[in-house]
Every structure is written in structure tokens, then in C-alpha cells.
């Protein structure tokens, strides 16, 4: 799948976190508290953005999405790796 | 400065967060809850890793560092941008 590799980091009011977490789990891999990572298609990306806007309050919540070309993904973990991703290249 | 552009995301026990936050602020820009971003030199990177290991407990804490080539940094923010970074190219 030629997709987009993304990292999603959120800082969301407690009352909305669960819904966002459950939604993102359908697309991405949970990495750490408020952090998801994974590869999705462009179409899925668009749908994800629309849904995230529905699930959050733009005046109170913050979501940052980093798009990283997979071949440049360079990651180092100190301490516990809460959810190690096995890369299948 | 030809440095490394990094993203640091941490999930640390409450008793150690303040020290890590104060330390990272000396190198990087606070973006959002438990997230720092910025460009540092290779030497600074090595020093940072050593210091972060000193400040945290590898059996309880988790720090993920993403190294992203600056020209591939592609970021989208939904909602509040807690600490917008002005890129000086």
C-alpha cells in the first residue's frame, strides 16, 4: 500500500479522549499516551481529518499530525516501548 | 546550523516530568503536552540522550524521539496550536 506515514499527537479535554482514542485505533497504532502512528491511504487521511474535527472542539483541543516519508522514519526509544511496531518492509 | 530536526514525545511518571520539561526547554520548543520539537546539533543530541537517561527511570518512563529531515517536515494542526513555530528558512 502506497500510503502516507503519519504520527498523530493529541491534547484533548478528558470528556472527548475516549472517542478520539477508539476512532484512531481503527486507522492507526497506539504508541504511547496520546500518540498514534501508522500508514494510511490519502482517502483514509481525508476521512480521518473530517471525523477528528467532528469528535473534537477546535477551541479547546489540539491535534498535531506529522506526515513523515516512511523511508525517513528514524525513531529512538528510551525506557519502555509501550507498543513496539514491527516494520514489515 | 546543519542539525538534526527532532520530535520528542514522553510519557513519564509525574514525579519526574518537571525536571525533564525544564531540561528539554533548554534545547527544544514546547509544542504541546509532553511534546517538544526543534533542531539540535549531533553533539547536543548525544548530550540530551545521556541527560534524559539520568533524569528518567527506564522501567517506568517512555521517551520516543523521532528524527525527521527538516525538508520533509510536514505538519497539520487541528484545533488550538499551543505553541506555533515560525520556521526561519
UniProtKB/TrEMBL annotation, chains A, B:
Quote the Pfam families the UniProt record gives. Answer: CRISPR_Cas2
Q: Which GO terms describe its biological process?
A: defense response to virus; maintenance of CRISPR repeat elements
Q: Under which main EC class is this enzyme filed?
A: hydrolase
Q: Known InterPro entries for this protein?
A: CRISPR_associated_Cas2 (IPR021127), Virulence_VapD/CRISPR_Cas2 (IPR019199)
GO molecular function annotations of the record: hydrolase activity; metal ion binding; RNA endonuclease activity
Tree of life domain: Archaea
Cofactor(s) needed: Mg(2+)
Q: What is its EC number?
A: 3.1.-.-
Q: Where do the annotations place Mg(2+) binding?
A: 11
Keywords assigned by UniProt, alphabetized: Antiviral defense, Endonuclease, Hydrolase, Magnesium, Metal-binding, Nuclease
**What is said about its interaction partners and assembly?**
Homodimer, forms a heterotetramer with a Cas1 homodimer.
Task: Give the function comment from the record.
Answer: CRISPR (clustered regularly interspaced short palindromic repeat), is an adaptive immune system that provides protection against mobile genetic elements (viruses, transposable elements and conjugative plasmids). CRISPR clusters contain sequences complementary to antecedent mobile elements and target invading nucleic acids. CRISPR clusters are transcribed and processed into CRISPR RNA (crRNA). Functions as a ssRNA-specific endoribonuclease. Involved in the integration of spacer DNA into the CRISPR cassette.
Q: What is the similarity comment for this entry?
A: Belongs to the CRISPR-associated endoribonuclease Cas2 protein family.
Classification via PANTHER family? CRISPR-ASSOCIATED ENDORIBONUCLEASE CAS2 (PTHR34405:SF1)
Protein name in UniProt: CRISPR-associated endoribonuclease Cas2
Name the lineage: Archaea, Methanobacteriati, Methanobacteriota, Methanomada group, Methanobacteria
Q: Which gene produces this protein?
A: cas2
